[in-house]
Design goal:
Blueprint (H helix, E strand, L loop, with lengths): L2 H6 L4 H12 L9 H52 L3 H27 L4 H24 L2 E4 L11 E7 L9 E6 L1 E4 L2 E4 L1 E6 L1
Parallel strand pairs: 2-6
Antiparallel strand pairs: 1-4, 3-6, 4-5
Helix pairs in contact: 4-5
Length: 201
Amino acid sequence: MSVNEKKTKPETDAEIGAENQSDESIPEFDENSPESSAASAGNGTDSLSDTSAELEALQKELLYQRAEFDNSKKRLIREQEQSIKFANEKLIREILTVVDHLERGVQHGKELGEKGQTTPKDFVTFVSGMEMTQRELAQLLSRFGVELIGSSGEAFDPAKHEAISQIDAPPEKQGTVLQVLQKGCLLNGRLLQPARVVVAK
């Protein structure tokens, strides 16, 4: 046997056994094995399911928040419109007092003329001026959405009239307004104040 062959040959059987045992202790991993593929597929499916569920939940939350926002926006716009529409309510109530004064002044002037306590010219001038002021004020109110209600001879309507008293009258006049004690009004179609009237019964 040559010298080189002696050097490459393991010196003992123990060393040979140790080398074999070392090789067997390292497990080989086959990434293409069924076990490896099944594990990877399972992890991927679970992750995709979780992501889909989270995305669906976020979409529902987004739709809910958008609906809430739209409803709040519409409610605020509606409330703002109502506030603007009826902002002059207090002013209208005050002006109604002036309307009543004017009507009483016109009525008083007519009574003076009928009793002869003033000249015909004075009577005509007084009544004409009062009636012109009354018309101007009514026109002013109408520009702000106010409609005056209550006239003698019209049918009594509990939705817009308040009966202060009743007076016996012929059958053909029953249920009609004989006298208007105080004008009522509608503000943009809503009853602000009923007309106070005397009704025929």
